[in-house]
Write a structure and sequence with these properties.
Blueprint lengths: L14 H20 L3 E2 L5 E3 H8 L4 H6 L1 E4 L5 E4 L4 H10 L9 E10 L11 E10 L4 H17 L5 E7 L6 H14 L6 H9 L10 H7 L11 H16 L5 E2 L11 E9 L7 E7 L3 H4 L7 E7 H11 L9 E5 L5 H13 L4 E4 L5 H10 L4 E5 L1 H6 L1 E6 L5 E5 L7
Parallel strand pairs: 1-5, 7-8, 12-13, 12-14
Antiparallel strand pairs: 2-4, 3-4, 5-6, 6-11, 7-9, 9-10, 10-11, 14-15, 15-16
Helix pairs in contact: 1-5, 5-9
This protein binds one RNA strand of 78 nucleotides through helix 3, strand 6, strand 10, strand 11 and helix 11.
RNA sequence: GUGGGUGUAGCUCAGAUUGGUUAGAGCGCCAGGUUGUGGCCCUGGAGGCCGUGGGUUCAAGUCCCAUUACCCACCCCA
């Protein structure tokens, strides 16, 4: 066992896996660019207060999962547990919303939560976070869901389901909340201890409690859809019909509730059946009140976050990608050939070719084996004989064809 | 924070129930043979304080206690 290991819940992304990460990140940027989004990179740390005000003081994240510390000046600062808070802060601080049209931004990077690690859950994890500000209309909701679908579909992910719900607005949510609380209050004794506590703090969360007892009680509970105000109902109706027009399959789940307090109206989640217990691949929704709560202008907003580790997990289970080897693998057969090989290799690279070199000693047999393993297309062999004639021998691994390459004039190749 | 499982070679894992001399396999690595100079095949080699600490015993990878790490689930969330 090594003396030093990575800290709990923090993981090395090794070269083999990093290729996949790059593929996912590039796909994200490609799709985002098509949808006219720009990148915004907020810092990894913020004042603790920012997260307390945005995420909701009663959530587990703020209560016990944040990496919070005092800096040397005595300020309380926190490693971001999610991206939206920082994005909104940056938007307000730099007046990015000025300009007459919606502000569409995304952020890609690590988040930190002090949780017990398990499958699809780490303490440092990565999210793609996408936000639209200043667009109150239902088409913004639909557009961002389409974007998410395109991103996942183009990565080749299948077996995903898109689930929607609407959490109402300041007009209708309190009414529903009251009705729900009244209903649940009568059955309080049958709820799990957690939910009994939630009843006062965040009663909507009881709807998606996994305890069987709670599910049984919740079954007969009033559903939100009966309480939506006309505006919320119309808004949600357009979201759904817009998605349908594009043939984007989705289902309504009235028990879908967000873990963070700031959501209003449309909420959505993408789930996978292949992830085990942490089945949410991405989740998001509208949060029209948040900007003003943070002391900024009263801007509507919608966004989502996608968990990259979970996407990678799915991709790895789905397709074992073929490694792409270099164009050449250079095997130096004798010490006196080092100089020539060095020059030749750099010349080939200067021409844009991908060249692997193994300067370490070893038998010819093993050099060729390594070339195979590296999945190189061709092997360049340079030894004393070749030096005498001023030629390097190039062997095509697939066709066994041999060609000569002038050592001092590789550009003719 | 609460459960359950697992820590033995670089990797994947046997061995533990029924303690007993030098702890094994496959893959990988190194050397050699075969080959048209590599892939297949054959021979040999290196590589382990059996997670850590204590205990029981003449004797512990194996039994007991503690501890730690990882995994899975609860919880929470993306």
């Amino acid at each position: 066992m090594p003396a030093l290991t990575a800290i709990r819940g923090f993981r090395d992304i090794l070269p083999k896996e990093a290729d996949l990460w790059r593929e996912v990140e590039e796909k994200a940027r490609q799709v985002l660019d098509r949808f006219d989004f720009s990148e915004l990179r907020p810092p990894i740390m913020e004042r603790t207060e920012l997260f307390q005000r945005t995420i909701g003081a009663a959530t587990d994240i703020v209560e016990k999962e944040m990496y919070t510390m005092e800096d040397r000046g005595g300020d309380l600062i926190t490693l971001r547990p999610e991206a939206t808070a920082g994005m909104v802060r940056a938007l307000i601080e730099h007046n990015l919303h000025e300009g007459g049209r919606a502000t569409k931004v995304f952020c890609l990077g690590p988040m930190f939560r002090y949780e017990r690690p398990q499958k699809g859950r780490l303490r440092q994890f990565h999210q793609l976070d996408v936000e639209i500000f200043s667009d109150p209309g239902p088409h913004a909701d639909a557009e961002i869901i389409v974007l998410l679908r395109d991103f996942l579909a183009e990565l080749g992910l299948t077996n995903l389901s898109i689930v929607l719900n609407s959490l109402g607005c300041p007009v209708c949510r309190p009414v529903y909340r009251e009705n729900l609380v009244a209903f649940l209050e009568k059955r309080k004794g049958k709820l799990c201890p957690d939910c009994q506590r939630r009843l006062g703090l965040n009663p909507l969360r009881i709807l998606d409690c996994k305890s069987e007892a709670c599910q049984a009680e919740v079954k007969g509970a009033p559903t939100f859809s009966k309480f939506w105000c006309p505006e919320c109902q119309a808004h949600f109706g357009v979201v759904k019909s817009s998605l349908s027009k594009l043939g984007l399959a989705h289902e309504l789940d009235e028990r879908l509730v967000r873990g963070l307090d700031y959501y209003t109206r449309t909420t959505f989640e993408v789930r996978s059946g292949d992830l085990g217990s942490q089945s949410a691949v991405a989740g998001g929704g509208r949060y029209d009140g948040l900007c003003r709560e943070l002391g900024g202008p009263d801007l509507p907003a919608i966004g989502f976050a996608a968990g990259l580790e979970r996407i990678i997990l799915l991709l790895r289970a789905q397709k074992p990608k073929a490694p792409k080897g270099p164009d050449y693998y250079a095997a130096v057969l004798a010490p006196e050939a080092m100089e020539s090989a060095f020059v030749l290799v750099q010349a080939l690279r200067a021409r844009g070719l991908r060249v692997a070199v193994d300067w370490a000693p070893g038998s010819l047999k093993n050099r060729l084996k390594r070339a195979d393993k590296a999945a190189a297309a061709k092997v360049i062999m340079i030894g004393p004989n070749e030096l005498a004639s001023g030629q390097a021998t190039v062997r095509d691994l697939l066709t066994k064809e041999q060609v000569s390459l002038p050592i001092d004039k590789p550009e003719v190749f």
